[in-house]
């Protein structure tokens, strides 16, 4: 009994060794090579080249090429991503008066008439104070061709900063007669309208960040006065101005100007100042020095000191800077929507500015009904959380229940024609995510996500970087684990780029942090269209075909070996020679599928980019579902059965050779293996739609190499082999006419179902709805009701 158990164990191990080739170990190597080499095609794409920066696309990782074809949600920044981040100073408002359109040679600011003027014309000193604030409150560096004392020619100045906004404001002040000359020995130098150089000692600076939404500087004038200048978002500056009646009135008018400029799509900043007494400055200076010397939490302590200083300020005015929409940004958004992708805009800008940009880039259509979850809508009630709960319930009811359930056609018509967009700001998002009660928070979050899923587009404004990452994380964790993509250009976008499945960096003007931390970097937002709709589509089809083809050819390879065991007494006798077992995946069938997975274009790239709906055909991992897998499995089982039994019935004849000799075991295996290699290679040739000289070389070259190797391996007596069992087997096998006919017939029978299916599938390639569109449809393509 013990010997029987031992025999069973050894037989089991022997069969494991015999059948281990069904595991596609070489597939891992091929997939890695395909991903690595395929990434170069993205880098080499000339359509991604941008003449302005003299750069093209950059691939930082090669593991996500196929993920580009499975994206469900796109999260995009606004400034520098949808827009050019090329700022131009348009106008300003000082003490409630609107100014714009002054030329360089104009003495001071020119006032424009408008309905928002409230006070008399702003005082000359206030105008100059405003322009000095623009020249002093920034982190701009100046590059001069020649450093000389006295007035500096404007043509010799070049401004550099990580923020294009600051450069635009400094240039705007320069246009009105106040020129920032530079910093020398800790003193900021400004050339005024009288061509005189004013020097201000720079005492302290707290740079702008996305959380505070403002920056401040403390300077000392030549007369010894100490001033604090602050500029930032209206939501960060207005609460910190003085509460005097005159200041509140000015703030009201300034706010009206800011909102009007924001609705026009301009980026707005408010400017304020504060005089600091020498005694107060000594205390402040001591606190700032202690904060700078702190070993831990240095930045937080600095912010705390400035936060205490930035109170009871005097509002001077506001600025409006134009940031034009990027070329083809609107067309790209439309194409992504047509491809079935949901686009969310996450920005730190003011709601009105962001909304205007969303309309301009066609994220929101004129027919889109907007649902707002903002501070303005929630503050209508004393209890913010109660009001938030009411709005969430109201919006969910509108989206889920405002159509007849009984009539399916009406529901379909509603979903096709009625579009909803959601607008939410950072404060409201914090209420949703950080409610006072955990149960309420979870409930708010669930309802909020239900609303988002039903909206065609979502705008999130006044977002901090961490909030952007939180939103991406929320969507990632949805049921079904949708694939997310984030695209941005600045350091404040890095968190959401790292959080999403695929991160795209724009090689913008705010540094290269986003590009360095991303998976892919492109010069412009418009390049996202081809990256997803063409490269993503093709790479997914290629990798899906590669994976299934490997399982297919390995099953074809091992099934005759399995069937052979029923005819050899389960003796673990191999059907193929050891050399064939080793060379099958390494040499005979590896290069054709690698070339296919790199070069195949089953649909022309121009067609993929011009008709975004084709992207939906591969969505939801359509080609790696159970249906396509079963198709490949049954095809392999059928062909493997034909290989073995076709050869088996051939051997039932009494003689195959002209000299009346009967073929042996190794001849039988060689015939099966020959039919196998030719069939799986020709199967790939049938699947190839885009032929290049490389495809021809590797496909026909692999078949020629197999024939050459078989003659070579069987034509020499190898001294290191104990048994010369393959000696002259291949040559004698091909000397029989019956064998030639059998090989050709078995190959045709094996491929006939595939040929028949392809013919039937492509009979209706020319769709009635698209008479000019001919598409060689893949068998595993998903059917969608959109004319395909």
Structure description:
With 788 residues, the protein is an alpha/beta fold. The protein folds into 3 domains: 2-41 and 533-761, no CATH class; 71-81 and 327-505, HAD superfamily/HAD-like (Rossmann fold), CATH 3.40.50.1000; 83-322, 3-Layer(aba) Sandwich (Calcium-transporting ATPase, cytoplasmic domain N), CATH 3.40.1110.10. 48% of the residues lie in helices and 15% in strands. The chain has 27 helices and 20 strands. The strands form 3 sheets. It has a 9-stranded mixed β-sheet with strand order 1-20-19-18-2-14-17-16-15, with helices on both faces. β18 (484-488), α17 (494-499) and β19 (502-506) form a beta-alpha-beta unit. α12 (384-401) runs parallel beside α15 (438-454), α21 runs antiparallel to α25 (693-714) and α23 (626-650) runs antiparallel to α27 (737-761). The longest helix has 38 residues, at 527-564. The radius of gyration is 36 Å and the shape is elongated. The model is unreliable at 102-108, 110-120, 403-415, 766-777 and 783-788 (pLDDT under 50).
């Amino acid at each position: 009994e013990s010997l029987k158990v031992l025999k069973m164990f050894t037989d089991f191990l022997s069969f494991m060794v015999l059948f281990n080739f069904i595991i596609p170990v070489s597939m891992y190597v091929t997939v890695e090579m395909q991903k690595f080499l395929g990434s170069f095609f993205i880098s080499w794409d000339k359509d991604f080249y941008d003449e302005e920066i003299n750069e093209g696309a950059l691939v930082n990782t090669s593991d996500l090429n196929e993920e580009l074809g499975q994206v469900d949600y796109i999260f995009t920044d606004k400034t520098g991503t949808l827009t050019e981040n090329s700022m131009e100073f348009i106008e300003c408002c000082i003490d409630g008066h609107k100014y714009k359109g002054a030329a360089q040679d104009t003495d001071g600011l020119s006032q424009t008439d408008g309905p928002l003027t409230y006070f008399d014309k702003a005082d000359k000193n206030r105008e100059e104070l405003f322009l000095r604030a623009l020249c002093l409150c920034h982190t701009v560096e100046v590059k001069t061709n020649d450093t000389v004392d006295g007035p500096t020619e404007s043509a010799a100045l070049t401004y550099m900063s990580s923020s294009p906004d600051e450069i635009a404001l400094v240039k705007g002040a320069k246009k009105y007669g106040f020129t920032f000359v530079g910093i020398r020995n800790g003193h900021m130098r400004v050339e005024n309208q009288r061509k005189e150089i004013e020097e201000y000692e720079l005492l302290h600076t707290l740079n702008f960040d996305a959380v505070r939404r403002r920056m401040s500087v403390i300077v000392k004038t030549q007369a010894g006065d100490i001033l604090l200048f602050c500029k930032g978002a209206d939501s960060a500056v207005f609460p910190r101005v003085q509460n005097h009646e005159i200041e509140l009135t000015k703030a009201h008018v300034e706010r009206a100007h800011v909102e009007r400029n924001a609705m026009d799509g301009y980026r707005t900043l408010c400017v304020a100042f504060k005089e600091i007494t020498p005694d107060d400055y000594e205390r402040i200076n001591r606190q700032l020095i202690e904060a700078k010397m702190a070993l831990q939490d240095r930045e937080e302590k600095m912010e705390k000191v400035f936060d205490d200083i930035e109170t009871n300020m005097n509002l001077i005015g506001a600025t409006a800077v134009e940031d034009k929409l990027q070329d083809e940004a609107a067309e790209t958004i439309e194409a992504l929507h047509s491809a079935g992708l949901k686009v969310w805009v996450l920005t730190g800008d003011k709601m009105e500015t962001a909304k205007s940009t969303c309309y301009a880039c066609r994220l929101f259509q004129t027919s889109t009904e907007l649902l707002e979850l903002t501070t303005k809508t929630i503050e209508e009630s004393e209890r913010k959380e109660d009001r938030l709960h009411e709005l969430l319930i109201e919006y969910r009811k509108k989206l889920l229940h405002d159509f007849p359930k009984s009539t399916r056609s009406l529901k379909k018509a509603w979903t096709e024609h009625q579009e909803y967009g959601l607008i939410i700001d950072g404060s409201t998002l914090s209420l949703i995510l950080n409610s006072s009660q955990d149960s309420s928070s979870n409930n708010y979050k669930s309802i909020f996500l239900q609303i988002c899923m039903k909206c065609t587009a979502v705008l999130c404004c006044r977002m901090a970087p961490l909030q952007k990452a939180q939103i991406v994380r929320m969507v990632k964790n949805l049921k079904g684990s949708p694939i997310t993509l984030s695209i941005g250009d600045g350091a404040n976008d890095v968190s959401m780029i790292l959080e999403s499945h695929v991160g795209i960096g724009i090689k913008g003007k705010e540094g290269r942090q986003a590009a360095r931390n991303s998976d892919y970097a492109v010069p412009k937002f418009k390049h996202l269209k081809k990256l997803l709709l063409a490269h993503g589509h093709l790479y997914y089809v290629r990798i899906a075909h590669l994976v299934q083809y490997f399982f297919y050819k390995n099953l074809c390879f091992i099934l005759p070996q399995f069937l052979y065991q029923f005819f050899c007494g389960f003796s673990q006798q191999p059907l193929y020679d050891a050399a064939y077992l080793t060379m099958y995946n390494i040499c005979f069938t590896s290069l054709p599928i690698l070339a296919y997975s790199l070069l195949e274009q089953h649909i022309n790239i121009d067609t993929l980019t011009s008709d975004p709906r084709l992207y939906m055909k591969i969505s939801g991992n359509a080609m790696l579902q159970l249906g396509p897998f079963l198709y490949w499995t049954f095809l392999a089982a059928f062909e493997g059965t034909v290989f073995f039994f076709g050869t088996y019935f051939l051997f039932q004849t009494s003689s195959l050779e002209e000299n009346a000799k009967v073929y042996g075991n190794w001849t039988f295996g060689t015939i099966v293996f020959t039919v196998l290699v030719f069939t799986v290679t020709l199967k790939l040739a049938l699947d190839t739609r885009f032929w290049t000289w490389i495809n021809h070389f590797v496909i026909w070259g692999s078949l020629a190499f197999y024939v050459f190797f078989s003659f070579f391996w069987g034509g020499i007596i190898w001294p290191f082999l104990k048994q010369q069992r393959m000696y002259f087997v291949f040559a004698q096998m091909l000397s029989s006419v019956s064998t030639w006919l059998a090989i050709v017939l078995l190959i045709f029978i094996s491929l006939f179902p595939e040929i028949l299916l392809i013919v039937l599938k492509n009979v209706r390639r020319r769709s009635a709805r698209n008479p000019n569109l001919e598409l060689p449809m893949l068998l595993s393509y998903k059917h969608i009701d959109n004319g395909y």
